[in-house]
Amino acid sequence: FIMERKTHVKINRKEVMLAKLRKSCSCTPQKLKNFVMDFFPVLRWLPKYRCKEYIWGDIMSGLVIGIILVPQAIAYSLLAGLKPIYSLYTSFFANIIYFLMGTSRHVSVGIFSLISLMVGQVVDRELLLAGFDLNDDAPPALGDGSLQNDSLSNKTAFNLTIAGINAECGKECYAIGIATALTFVAGVYQVLMGIFRLGFVSMYLSESVLDGFATGASLTILTAQVKYLIGIKIPRSQGHGMLVITWINIFRNIPQANLCDVITSAICIVVLVTAKELGDRYKHKLKFPLPTELVVIVVATLVSHYGKLNEVYASSVSGAIPTGFIPPEVPQFNLMLRVAVDALPLALVSFVFTVSLSEMFAKKYAYTIRANQEMFAVGFCNIIPSFFHSFATSAALAKTLVKTSTGCQTQVSGVISAMVVLLVLLFLAPLFYSLQKCVLACIIIVSLRGALRKFRDVPARYRVNKMDTLVWVITMSASALVSTEIGLLVGIVFSMLCIVVRTQRPRTALLGQIQDTGFYEDDFEYENLSTVPKVKIFRFEAPLYYANKNYFLKSLYRLTNLDPNLEAARRKKCEKKEKQHLQKGDHRTANGLGTGETTLQLVPKQIDFQTLVVDCSSISFLDTTGVNTLKEILKDYKNLNISVLLACCNPSVIDSLKRGGYFGRDFGSMQEMLFYSIHNAVLFAKDQK
After folding, report:
1. Residues 6+ apart with CB under 8 A from 555
2. Beta-bridge partner residues of 529
3. Do 529 and 464 fall into the same domain?
4. Residue 400 pLDDT > 80, yes or no?
5. Is the same domain home to 631 and 514?
6. Are residues 400 and 544 part of one domain?
7. Are residues 70 and 9 in contact, defined by beta-carbon separation less than 8 angstroms?
8. d(CA 133, CA 249)
9. What is the pLDDT of residue 574?
10. Contact call for residues 549 and 631 (beta carbons, < 8 A)
11. Are strands 520-522 and 643-647 parallel, antiparallel or unpaired?
12. Which domain holds residue 552?
């Protein structure tokens, strides 16, 4: 039977688009109010804030996150190649802006190790191109609060290399200039993606790609911190193969290791790892996480200051961290042009991590977020702070987990965290002058535990899906051995190629009938299936399009043990020889048979079916090549007196077949060629016999 299709009213897309445009361009007081409240979600939820119910959880989580943010901000400045003060600025502004514009109640937005690494790689590259020395182990600047005290050689190199910028701007000034320009462009990209609703781009970053990218970048971060752990001075490697080159330099310079830094690093790592493990084991009994990083930093700073580790043992220290805020400054446009390409992967990674975390916690706590607004929020968390000497931000999983575990209810906790950072910015920052860089490196390395533990999941991942494991390995290897940006690109391209390969060479099967039922399954995979006499049922588990046309035909011919083209050619050859013998008056054929037996000989013994049923249930669409392929097999098998029936086609496939003329001009034979189940097709084939 043929089901009657509904008649759909044809939509005039031009009129619909014009109506939407008129609606978008119209401005009424109510619409303006809704726009402002949608753009600043805080205006919707803050008036409904349940103070008695939420305030203590928000204050507690805000204080804990603020205490964690301070040491992490100082530590991650090493990754970004910038001074610690800029990391503190970043943490402060990101929390305030996300409080105003974010739709997630729980995510913690601020500095993130992966984003800091990506910023640092661009900063290092541009400093090298500008002629600066990347050695950051030079004697610290005097504690006069100046953020532009650089060596004369750095100023000279800068002026000779880069023209058109303030001649007094030295290495540090140029580094933060690059970082703010990069951050501004990344934020603009994110806002534009929000305006044009391009959030779907994040769908191409699969879980395997993101995990592999994060793990590969973690190896790069770990490698970059080893020199601080053991106190050696090696050049900061740039470009492809940075990981390998850095390790070669580390092993070459191990004899120069600073014993004081090695001992300090060993003690800090033992304390941090032990505290983390205990915290994970007893997290259900603890009301809030142990502020281990802050304790380690305070103790290490006191020991370094009173033990004079910098003066006596030449241990590298953080140096002067000024207090207060620097006057805002517009990012340099000519620097934006230099980093425009680098900002694209930065914007994409920042957005994807933020939205994925927001969706994860929204689902966990039963509320909804707006992905497009999240894109605006994280975009402005980059654009606005870039005027205040800050660099790129993103949501961070570790801090978000701490937030939720300490009672966070809303983004009011973010304001509390920002106040803690502000307190450090205004009063406490100079106290970290004597903090050893090896302590900061220890904090960074221990924070990578989660990403590095992904290596333990590889066997389980492999058992679940081999292709996804391969994507993870390729992305991780490229991110670690080549560069983070190239690794991300390689991961995206390779994962898409895997999808293409899966559709190019999908599973194919001949189906057998489940006994005493009207259902059919793969004869290769299941036992006790019965074959249908004189009927072959072929399943193709992918769309049929130009890239897999040949595989479709080869699989069909192989499984049915019949190539209709070869069989037709063989028959023509036999007929030709038969005619030649008849013309010569020989009543014996080329095969030694009489003329009456010729027809029997022409039908090969291997053709054991008269009907081919194609199960189209897994064919989601057909392109022009796919339609032509089905028309081709219909014609070829018809020449051998074999019927071709299609079963389980979806409406899209049926429409493609109609437009391609598969059923003829008037669709008169459609009900004899198309069936809504395999069993109906099989019953029809039996009746035709």
Report:
1. 508, 540
2. 514
3. no
4. yes
5. yes
6. no
7. no
8. 17
9. 86
10. no
11. unpaired
12. 508-568+606-687
